[in-house]
Amino acid sequence: MQLIWNGTPEERLELLAAVQHNCTCTIDVHGARVSVCEAHTMLVQHQRVLNGLLFARRIAQRFIREEWLLADPAGIGLEANR
Fold first, then answer.
1. Is the four-CA dihedral 8, 13, 17, 19 of positive or negative sign?
2. Rounded distance, CA 60 to CA 14, Å?
3. 3-state secondary structure of 36
4. 2 partner at 20 to 30 Å CA-CA among 24, 50, 66, 76?
5. Does pTM surpass 0.70?
6. For the chain, how many structural domains are there in total?
7. Helix 38-45 / helix 9-21 crossing angle, nearest 10 deg
8. Residue 51 lies in a domain
9. Strand, helix or coil at 20?
10. Residue 71 located in a structural domain
11. Averaged over 52-60, what is the pLDDT?
């Protein structure tokens, strides 16, 4: 099964950096990967997870802005800094 990354090249690099940061793969003394962690498995086996991560990443700022607008009826929060 071949997965397709539907995000931008920048988003791909950020995802790979996050996976690497949280990697729990086991590497032997020769540098060979002995076991593959769940984060790396996700990158090659789960299209739905990749799509969901991309969707959540893209919509997160909208949710944050809306939260500020609801909590800040005077409009002084994030919107004032634009």
1. positive
2. 15
3. coil
4. 24
5. no
6. 1
7. 150
8. yes
9. helix
10. yes
11. 91
pLDDT of residue 33 exceeding 70: yes
CA distances from 2 to 25, 43, 44, 46, 47 (A): 22, 10, 8, 10, 9
Residue 3 falls within a domain, yes or no? no
DSSP assignment letter at 50? H
Range of the domain at 26: 9-81
Strands (E), 1-82: 26-27, 33-35
At 60 the pLDDT is 87
40 within 8 A of 25, measured Cβ to Cβ: yes
**Helix, strand, coil % over all residues of the chain, rounded to 5:** 60, 5, 35
Give me the mean pLDDT over the 50-68 stretch: 87
Is the residue at 2 inside a domain? Answer: no
Q: Which residues pair with 27 in a beta bridge?
A: 33
pLDDT for 51: 94
Q: What single letter denotes the amino acid at residue 42?
A: M
